[in-house]
Amino acid sequence: MGCGTSVTGSRAKKSERAIKAAILIQRWYRCYMARLKMRRQYALSIFQSIEYAEEQAQLQLSSFFTFMLDHFTHLNETDTGKDKKSLIWKFHDFNTTGSDVQLLEYERMIEIPDSYHGPQLSFPLTVADTNSLLHAFKDQQHLHARYVLQLLHETKKLLKQMPNIIHLSTSYSKEITICGDLHGKLDDLLLIFYKNGLPSEENPYLFNGDFVDRGENSIEILIILFAFLLVYPNHLHLNRGNHEDHIVNLRYGFTKEVMKKYRSHGKKFLNLLQDVYSWLPLATVIDSKVLIVHGGISDTTDLDFLNSFKRNKHMCLLHDGVNSGPLLEAPYLESSVCMPSMPSELTAKEWKQVVDILWSDPKNQNGCTPNKVRGGGCYFGPDVTARLLKRYNLKMLIRSHECKQEGYEISHDGQVITIFSASNYYEDGSNRGAYLKLSPDLIPRFVQYQVSKWTHKQTLHQRVSVVEWSALKSLREKLYSRRSELIAAFRQYDPNYTGKISATEWASAMESVLHLDLPWRTLRSRLVQLAPDGSVEYLSCFNDLEIEPPIKEVQPALVETLYRYRTDLEIIFNIIDKDHSGLISIEEFRQTWKLFNSHLKIDIDDESIDNLARSIDFNKDGNIDFNEFLEAFHVVNKFENK
Asked: What domain count does the chain have?
């Protein structure tokens, strides 16, 4: 008996040790996963904050176009005597598309060579045509320009027949699939069709805006969606997003993609797309209970009014704020540039209704406040949501517009759903995509996915590290672009030039200059060196950054400024470079920079700009290769290659 008791006690002790070991392992794993989750979350926060700052910069650039209306300097003497409107159209190069008759004549003039082996479309389109497009794009083929123009023309004719707000029912198909932002990610669209089936009468879809920009296959996504729309006009539906705007497309890549893929006819595509964008429906209501818009709502959103005006007048939303400034405060272009003359109060009210549903975001706090992070629309709280749903006897609001780590998010006590369908949006592994399925019970069912090329071969730790590194790299570049301002802000807390300030002071200085609303105290160990006493050695955040290759003739302050505004400059120069050769004259460079300089009140003298222009004209032919110019002002980590 004694021996048996001893054995039993020994087993009990071993079992107890095993349980303790299991608990320790479990605790370690939970802590490990929590740290990874935190790193993914702050990486996503960095990406998102920088994205919204860029959207603010886009509004600033639109304000610059306004400035040019009043202060345009003639780029050549032949423009003398033209009115301001014609000058701004010269600068924009956004000409009207002409009549439908002219467009059809232009289409007929485009010959399809015998060497073309891509898909051949005949109108009206059939299911066979959509299948042909899908197979061609999987094989990285392009659709011929003539077919693209015909497709856009037919799409415009169909969209013009639709109301501002589409009403759908689940009673026939029993289920509707709702997709969020795709942003040129063709692989995500193909994966959705693979998992969920192609659009059809039995399998209807709603795509909730932002089809284009950022990704490399925006034009292919538009072609596929428009083709299915023509085949199934009652079973595939499209809402307009804030990126269905040609001014936004200038910054985020779609304009460049179209001109690269369809060089000879790209301008005609872009001009026609302005019309197509303007005719996209603004909202959708399912079973009279679920409202679907791209961005959100405000405390003044009026669905009845939203459904009453001609939506195509609001072609370029970044310009349409009549007497109301840009999306928040700065003045905008004259309404005559983008829309017909109308009573200003009515036009401004219409414009605000559209901007609010395309640009707004939900917040957890009650109330409705201007969305100063993006620079457009508003932040709307749970009380704003509840009031609108009650007013129209609705149950739920579905929107997109924001990247979510899991592809979707539920907020406002289950009354607001955000759905985002572009996986790997910021970086491979940064987020999942998702779509939702809505049946007559109106209970959303989410399907998540992530397009994987090589990330599936990496461990979770490796994937998070890659995303985190990419986010921090983008943030460091942002710091470099504001180097002078940051140093000045740091030294307000360091009058004795010790090179050290407290963590709180460092965080305050960072936020006062960058306005990114990031957890700076959490991030400080990843961005700067810390002294033994816990203080921040603030100059260390610039130690490993440099512009390569350096242009020795250019002052450091000018280098920093050019880097900060390089995207804005690229947009302006691409507009000036009408033949998209990548070359602009030195005189165009000087004149445009002087305008930009005057508008932004940047303290850089004309001589410095002239020196820069001469220094980057390496072959002295009087032209500047702007692509090389942009590459010259590219911030890199000094130790990356090593």
From this structure: 1
